[in-house]
Write a structure and sequence with these properties.
With 132 residues, the chain is α+β, with helices and mostly antiparallel strands. The chain has helices at residues 3-25, 27-53, 67-77, and strands at residues 97-98, 105-108, 113-116, 124-126. The longest helix is centred in the N-terminal third of the chain and has 27 residues, at 27-53.
Length: 132
């Protein structure tokens, strides 16, 4: 291989990399949105199951505090011999509270969990930290 051929191959590789970088960097934020939405849906499905098997799960919203979210999360994980189907959310799930404006968070509105997107203020359960 001559020097000119090597330079042509290197130039082609540089062009391919320059095209690929923007496409690859868009993957991480899109996957975070998908994970946050899936975890929010998992939480709300557990709330609906709880409501259909037992009394309706409601608590008053506490502005700026994650006490409600953590109480509801614990209620969904609790095992009650009198309630068919409990626990409604597996006890293997762990979630952390967050007030970071860069995180996807879930707050309890008194009936369901709602998402707080990055860039918004508010405290809630970090949806990306929810894992088994």
């Amino acid at each position: 291989m001559s020097f000119v051929e090597v330079m042509i191959v290197m130039g082609l590789l540089a062009v391919i990399v320059a095209i690929m970088i923007p496409a690859i960097t868009g993957v991480v934020p899109a996957s975070q949105v998908g994970t946050a939405e899936a975890n929010l849906e998992r939480l709300n499905q557990a709330v609906l199951k709880y409501n259909s098997a037992s009394e309706e799960l409601t608590t008053a919203e506490i502005a700026g505090d994650v006490a409600d979210e953590q109480t509801v999360f614990s209620s969904l994980q609790g095992r009650d011999a009198k309630v068919f189907g409990s626990p409604f959310l597996g006890p293997q799930y762990v979630v952390n509270a967050s007030s970071s404006e860069t995180a996807y968070r879930a707050f309890w509105n008194g009936r369901m969990f709602q998402m707080i997107s990055p860039g918004s203020t508010g405290t809630g359960l970090d949806l990306l930290s929810m894992h088994p």
